[in-house]
Design a protein that fits this description.
Blueprint (H helix, E strand, L loop, with lengths): L1 H21 L16 H19 L2 E2 L7 H6 L5 H10 L6 H15 L5 E4 L2 E4 H18 L8 H18 L4 H5 L3 H8 L18
Antiparallel strand pairs: 1-2, 2-3
């Protein structure tokens, strides 16, 4: 596992730190790039992620993972109502995200990413779950107005993860998707950008 999982872990940590550094410049009440959400709801959703990760790491599972990276990302749309309600109900301030990171970082740094954890969608390999958090952090960091410029490695991990979701359903479209600029691909794959010609029927792969 070693080096590859360390790259993923470090990329998530840097991406979260990048967002945290940007928060003092963000107007929480300004509309975000997500319809119906202000920056406040985006930040509330982001603030929950290190809390959940810490909770899941604390309870490793003996079950065989039956949730893949691809199915976890594609399955987020089934949780849309729950996610929306949690973001709207959360009580946060400008320090909440950073405080949650302070608790999560030592736990994440010490974690064995080869273990299985039980996340919201079921048992998943921790390394795959960390990739999904990287995707969330990159996409939602860009949803903020002003957007947070993502960590380059985290952005690359996000793009590859979304390509893997596309390939699971439409392997014939991989070459077409890879031809897009990375930021364009990530935005199109997550419904933030109109699908390019040839990919209309397949996108978004995640919302």
């Amino acid at each position: 596992m070693g080096s590859d999982t360390d790259v993923i872990r470090d990329a998530l940590i840097r991406q979260w730190e990048t967002i945290d550094r940007a928060l003092p410049t963000i107007d929480f009440d300004r509309p975000s790039r997500i319809a119906g959400w202000r920056n406040r709801e985006v930040i509330a959703h982001l603030s929950l992620q290190p809390v959940l990760l810490t909770r899941f790491i604390a309870r490793p599972s003996s079950q065989t993972p039956n949730v893949s990276l691809e199915s976890n990302l594609a399955g987020t749309r089934s949780l849309a109502a729950v996610i929306d309600a949690a973001a709207r109900d959360a009580v946060i301030d400008e320090n909440t995200f950073g405080q949650n990171l302070h608790v999560a970082f030592p736990v994440l740094a010490a974690a064995d990413l080869a273990v299985t954890v039980t996340a919201l969608q079921g048992p998943i390999r921790l390394a795959d779950y960390v990739v999904t958090r990287c995707v969330e952090a990159v996409v939602h960091g860009c949803d903020l107005i002003q957007p947070v410029e993502p960590d380059e490695t985290a952005l690359a991990i996000t793009a590859e993860a979304l390509l893997s979701v596309l390939v699971a359903a439409h392997p014939e479209l991989l070459t077409l998707a890879r031809a897009l600029p990375v930021r364009t691909w990530v935005d199109a794959a997550t419904g933030r950008h109109a699908p390019p010609p040839g990919l209309e029927a397949a996108l978004p792969v995640m919302t």
